[in-house]
Records
---
Amino acid sequence: MGTRIPGLHAGDALIIVDVQRDFLPGGALAVPDGDKVIPVLNRYIAEFASRNLPIYATRDWHPANHCSFREQGGPWPPHCVAETPGAEIPTDLQLPAGTEVISKARTPEKDAYSGFQGTDLLERLRARGCTRVFVGGLATDYCVKQTVLDARANGLDVVVLEDAIRAVEVNPGDGARALQEMVARGAVVTTIESIVT
Ligand code: VGL
Ligand code: ZN
C-alpha cells in the first residue's frame, strides 16, 4: 500500500524511466510484464499534464558496441541501440508535447543506469524549480532504482510509483529488494489511487 502523500503541487515533476520497445514483451531485453506500466503511467501523465507539471522521459541510448552488451563482455544482450526501433518509446505511452527526453549511456565505454548519470537532468529539474520527483518505468531493479537513489543523493524528495514499475529479476526477489533499498534511502512509495482523489 502506498503511503498517503500530499497532492501534486508546483515543484513536482514526473520522471518516466526507460519505457522503450526493447524492454517490453518481444523486445531484446524484455522486462516481464513491462507493458503493464504503460496504462498506469498514462494516468500519472494525465495528472501531471493537467497541472502543467514537467514530465521527463529517460531513454537508454546505446551505441552498437556498448560495453554493457555481451559481445563486449557486458551482462546484457544488445538493446536500445540509438536510432533503432528497439530504442523507441512506444507511441501508446501518451507523452504530451513538451515532454523532455533524456538520453543516457550514449558512449561505448560507460553504462548509466541512472537518468542523472552523464546527463543534464538535475540541471533541468533545478531550472524548473523541481524539488520532488515521481519516478516510474523500467526496470525497478536497475534504472528505476539508480535514478531514485541519485535523486535522493541530490537532495530531491522522491515518490516511487509502485504500480508503474516492473523488475527484470535476474535473481528472484531483486525487485522487492530494490524497492526496500529505495525506501531505506528515504523514497516514499505510492500508487495512482493515492494521487487521484
Ligand atoms: C536497464 C538493463 C540494461 C534499465 C538498462 O533500463 O533498467 N536495464 N540497461
Ligand atoms: Zn542499457
---
Amino acid sequence: MAQQIKVIRGMHDILPEHINVWHQLEDSYRQLVESYGYRQIRTPIIEKTSLFRRSIGEVTDIVEKEMYSFDDRNGDSLSLRPEGTASVVRAGIEHGLLVNQQQRLWYNGAMFRHERPQKGRYRQFYQLGAETFGMPGADIEAELILMAARFWQTLGLQGIELQLNTLGTAESRANYKDILVTFLRDHQDQLDADSLRRLDSNPLRILDSKNADMQPLIESAPRLKDHLDQQSQEHFAELLEILDHAGLPYVVNPRLVRGLDYYSHSVFEWVTETLGAQGTVCAGGRYDSLVEQLGGKPTFAAGFAMGIERLVAMIIDQQQEKDSQAPHIYFVMVGENTVKVGHKIAEQLRDALPELRLITHAGGGSFKSQMKKADKSMAAMALILGENEIETSTVNIKFLRQDKAQLEVSQDQLATQLKQLLNS
Ligand code: ATP
Ligand code: MG
C-alpha cells in the first residue's frame, strides 16, 4: 500500500459534522455587519512579503517567526497573509476607496501563521473582520465594539469579557517609550532574550510578552496611561462614556498593547475563560498611521478581527451543554409519607418550571441506595425529602457535580430557589 499523506501540521479539515456551526456563524456575521452598513471586501490570500513587513512591523512575532514566505518563480518574495488588515488597506489605497471617504468594510477568510499548534491555535485559521476608514472619533470605535457585543448576543455566547486600553497619540506614546526604556534598562538583568532584543527596536512590545517570568517586572513598569497627553485622555474617556451609556460592561487593562505595531488610541480584546489559554476571540483597535505607512494619504482607521475556530469551539461546547439530557434533579424520598408529599411537590415543580428535567425516585430503598441512583443519573442536584423535612416543611438540595454546601429550603420557596439555581 502506498504511504498515506496526512494534513499539514497545524492545519485542519472542517468536516460535515461541524459545518452547520460554521455556516451559522458566517451567516449571522454577514447579516449583522451588513445591517450596520458594512460591505464585504475580498483580497488575495497571497501578498508581497513587503506589505506585511511594512504594516505589521519587522520586530513582531508574526513577521519574525510566523510568516509563510517563499520566493515565487520570478524570485519575488511572497507571503500567505497572516492577517487581513494590511491587505484591506492595500486594496483600499489601490482602488481609491480611502481618500476623502468613509468606508465600513468586512471580510471573512483564511489566515496563515507558523505558530506552535495547540487547541485554538492553528497554522491555517479563519477570521471574520471589520475595518473602517475616514472616521477619527471614539464613536466609530464604540460602534465596532457594540457590533461585536451584539454578535455574541446573536450567537447566544456568554462570558466574553471586553478588555480595553488606550495607546494614545503617536507623540505621547513616543514620550512614554523613553520612560519605559529607561526603566527597563535599569532592570536589564530581568529581561529575557526576546525582550532584550526589543529594547531598542520595539520596547512597547515587551509589555505584551507571554513569558510568565517576565510578568512581575511588567507589572511594576511605568504605565502608559499615566503618561498620555490630554488629547489621548479625552479620546479614551469619550469611548468609555459611550460604552457606559450603552450599558456595556468592560475592564480597562493597562497592559493590553496588542501584538501589532500599527495601533494608536483605543485597543480592545474580547476574552473568555472557557477556552483555556487561547481565550481571545476578537481583537482590534484604531490604527491611524497604517494607511500612510503603506503609501496612502493619512487616513483615520479602526477595526477588529475575530478567530472563527475559537468561536466555533465555544458554540459547540455550549450546545453540548444544552443538548445534554442529564436531569437537573433526582428526587430522593425516604421515610413515612415522603412518597405522597414528594410526588405532590414534584408535580408543583413541573407546573412552575416547564423546562425542568426531574426524575422522581421509584421503588423505595435506603437513602444510600437512592443517592447512588441519583449520582448515576448524572443529575446536577439531588432533592432530599426525609421524615425530618416533612416535619419542618422543608427539602434539602444536595449538589452532586459542584463543590457547594447543601441547602435547606422551605417547600414554599422551592420553585423560586430552583429557578434561580437553574439560571445561574
Ligand atoms: P493571540 O494572542 O491569541 O496569539 P493575536 O493577538 O496574535 O492572538 P490577532 O492577530 O489580533 O491575534 O488576531 C485576531 C484573532 O484571531 C485572535 O483574537 C484569535 O481569535 C484569532 N487568531 C489569531 N491567531 C490564531 C491562530 N493561530 N489560530 C486560531 N485563531 C487565531
Ligand atoms: Mg498571536
